[in-house]
Amino acid sequence: MLKQVTFSLAFVLATAPAIAQQPATADKVADKTATKSHPKICKRSAPVGSMIETRRDCHTREEWNEMAQSARATGQDMVDRSAAGGH
User: What range does the record give for the signal peptide (predicted)?
Assistant: First the structure.
């Protein structure tokens, strides 16, 4: 019984690094492919109320465009509600 446990443990420990490396390698290949087709654009911004802290946000061009469009729509909605007298 002790020999089986020892052999099983040795087998698991011997194969663990190989198993652990497979997903990491696949992720790196996927990241390289994604980076080539849709490069990330990074911008620095300061959170509201902070004059010292900065954040670095990285998104694709499409994501930046979607966020800008959403912000414009929110701003326009606020202007429309204000003009209509709603709160």
Answer: 1-20
| 40 DSSP β-pair partners | 60
Length of the chain: 87
Check residue 84 and give its pLDDT. 87
7 φ/ψ angles, rounded to the nearest 5 degrees: -65, -40
**pLDDT over 50 at 19, yes or no:** no
Q: Tokens standing for 46?
A: 């300061």
Angle at the Cα of 18 from the Cα atoms of 12 and 20, rounded to 5 degrees: 90
User: How far from the centroid of its chain's Cα atoms is residue 79's Cα?
Assistant: 32
Token couple for 21: 């490396």
